[in-house]
């Protein structure tokens, strides 16, 4: 029997079932997934830097422990996502090489600096908040390994968002200087967080096709609006102001209206010329080089466990 693989793929998509690694898939579907999942994985790993910047300066032992756990979670997310991408036939080494040579992107948001402790609150509240809005629909992505990875990631992101909110709540209700520090952080992170959702729908090159394939379930603008609608009441609860004078409820639309986004800034950051692009990439490349001995040791250890007899002669551990 001749199976029409293209039709089988389309039937799976139409039935809202999952495509699994061994299923036939069009090359363009595979390439789109590799691009998006890799960009997502790189974002998690580069995203460790702005927050890692505050681990040594967290204001208490408790805050330090929470922040360390959060940064470790981001590393874990990166690893799940690289593993999901590997099921599509690329290796983690290849993807890391593409990141390090600037041929694959990571999220624009991580090219902004974390200047004060309040920035850690703003990153948790706004950046993780935006990430959740974008990522919850990805739990229903048509590609099984990505969708399953996202379920766990979203649970952890939800904790991250709450810890950011809580940092800002304490600062906002604190001294005048603490409140001002929280407000300043929100003023700097609001617009970059809004930009995380990507270009407007008419400028988005991949959205239409990705939505047809069930990779993306909502467009960039739909998710951006959802995030704004969700965040405005939270800002009120925090007694903080979002830095957009045009922000107001529109009864007719049933959504908040918002002011113009500076797309020139977005593309400048995406194209490598944001406040921290060079620093982020240089640190990532250096960390990878400094970790080479760990990878070598882990590989040697795995080989030894797989074949305990190999290399025993002359080995000091064998003699011990
Ligand atoms: N930054 O056609 P579209 C996190 C690029 S994880 C940089 O609309 P698409 C957790 C796009 O790649 C944050 N580039 O693209 C955390 C494309 O260029 P290309 C990451 C961007 O893929 C929190 C071009 O523009 N999340 O925050 C951005 O359909 C705290 C045209 O765009 C994900 O990756 C951007 N913001 O939609 C960690 C989620 N936006 O590839 C640590 C998964 C667009 O043709 C601390 N990804 N571009 O050269 C997605 O949902 C989608 O890929 C979008 C973009 C929505 C990001």
What distinguishing features does this structure have?
320 residues; binds Phenylacetyl coenzyme A; 2% strand; single chain; mainly alpha
Please characterize this protein's 3D structure.
By secondary structure, this protein is mainly alpha-helical. The chain has 14 helices and 2 strands, in the order ααααααααααββαααα. It has a two-stranded antiparallel sheet with strand order 1-2. Strand 1 (248-250) and strand 2 (255-257) form a beta hairpin. Helix 4 runs antiparallel to helix 7. The relative contact order is 0.11. Bound molecules: Phenylacetyl coenzyme A.
Bound molecules: Phenylacetyl coenzyme A
Number of strands: 2
Q: What Rg is obtained from the alpha carbons, in whole angstroms?
A: 22 Å
For the record, give the distance between the C-alpha atoms at the N and C termini, rounded to a whole number.
61 Å
Q: How can the largest sheet be summarized?
A: 2 strands, antiparallel
Helical stretch tally:
14
Quick recap:
This protein has 320 residues and is mainly alpha-helical. The chain is 64% helix and 2% strand.
What's the arrangement of secondary structure elements?
Elements: H1 5-14, H2 27-46, H3 48-52, H4 61-86, H5 92-100, H6 117-135, H7 144-172, H8 176-195, H9 207-212, H10 220-238, E1 248-250, E2 255-257, H11 263-270, H12 277-290, H13 292-306, H14 316-319
Antiparallel strand pairs: 1-2
The structure holds Phenylacetyl coenzyme A.
């Amino acid at each position: 029997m001749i199976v029409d693989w293209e039709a089988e793929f389309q039937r799976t998509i139409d039935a809202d079932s999952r495509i699994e690694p061994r299923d036939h898939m069009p090359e363009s579907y595979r390439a789109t997934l590799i691009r998006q999942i890799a960009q997502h994985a790189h974002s998690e790993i580069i995203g460790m830097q702005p927050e890692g910047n505050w681990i040594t300066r967290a204001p208490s032992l408790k805050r330090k422990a929470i922040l360390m756990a959060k940064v470790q979670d981001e590393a874990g997310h990166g690893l799940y996502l690289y593993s999901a991408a590997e099921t599509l036939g690329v290796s983690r080494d290849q993807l890391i090489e593409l990141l390090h040579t600037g041929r694959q992107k990571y999220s624009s948001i991580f090219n902004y600096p974390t200047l004060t402790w309040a920035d850690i609150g703003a990153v948790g509240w706004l950046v993780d908040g935006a990430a959740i809005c974008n990522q919850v629909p990805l739990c229903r992505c048509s590609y099984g390994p990505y969708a399953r990875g996202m379920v766990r990631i979203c649970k952890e992101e939800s904790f991250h968002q709450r810890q950011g909110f809580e940092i800002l709540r304490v600062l906002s209700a604190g001294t005048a200087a603490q409140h001002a520090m929280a407000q300043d952080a929100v003023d700097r992170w609001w617009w970059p967080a809004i930009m995380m959702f990507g270009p407007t729908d008419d400028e988005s090159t991949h959205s239409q096709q990705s939505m047809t394939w069930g990779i993306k379930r909502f467009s960039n603008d739909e998710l951006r609006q959802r995030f704004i609608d969700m965040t405005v009441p939270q800002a009120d609860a925090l007694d903080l102001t979002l830095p957009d004078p045009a922000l107001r409820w529109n009864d007719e639309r049933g959504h908040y209206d918002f002011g113009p986004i500076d797309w020139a800034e977005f593309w400048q950051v995406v194209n490598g010329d944001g406040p921290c692009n060079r620093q982020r990439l240089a640190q990532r490349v250096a960390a990878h080089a400094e970790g080479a001995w760990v990878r070598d040791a882990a590989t040697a250890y795995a080989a030894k466990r797989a074949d305990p007899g190999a290399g025993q002669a002359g080995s000091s551990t064998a003699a011990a």
